[in-house]
Amino acid sequence: MVVGMEETVLRERLGERAGIYPRLRVVAQTGSTNADLLAQPDAPDHAALIARHQTAGRGRLHRHWEGTPDKQLALSVLYRPEKRLVERLGLLPLAVGLAVVDTVPRAELKWPNDVLIEGRKVCGILVEAADLDSDPRVVVGCGINLSLSREELPVAHATSLTLEGIAHDPADVAAGLLDALERRVQQWRCADPTLLGDYRARCTTLGAEVRVERWEEIIEGTAVDVTATGALLVETSRGRQEFSAGDVTHLRRAV
Fold this sequence. Notes:
A hairpin with a 2-residue loop joins strand 10 (209-214) and strand 11 (217-226). Helix content is 22%, strand content 31%. The chain has 255 residues and is an alpha+beta fold. It has five helices and 14 strands. It is globular, with a radius of gyration of 18 Å.
């Protein structure tokens, strides 16, 4: 059970930092926390929504999934970035992944923002945007597997904090993630070079032999860097190629 995942408890854990989030809500169930925030055109910057059960979650590449009640953390935050930041949106999903790794012990990153523990996915992330030409709104959503059993995992290559033997309090995880998001998103907003440096240091894709699947194209090579826009650079037999999207498989990890 997600014990203590109540709004009052969460605000207590955040303390003075709760003021960063002017609209912070915890609900028992919803379809999608991302969709709920995007459907609120008057939602303020840093509006946050947490659901104890999400029935219509979405992932990258239009994948859909349903959560398990009280065993996963579904958390979304809406930001209203300045128009000048729209051209840097490609780096924001990486910043969000880094925030989750800051929060979850032993977690690693696989480009762009898959959060893994020992090669198994523990968190999914989706960043969505609206009204970029007029009044930009961006929602970042994170779904962390807290106490799922092996039988409850959505896919065989997933895991949960409980399965990894990581003791946790759901309210502490949520508060820690909100703190980490604030720090990393501010770095993104300010073009702080520390963000990309930290990402490169925590991303296990760099230096690994990889397969990239993009649409109907499959490319293999060595992942060598991440650009300032968040794209992955892969050294292939046809030269260095840049990928802003695609499914990455690690064929052999960096030594």
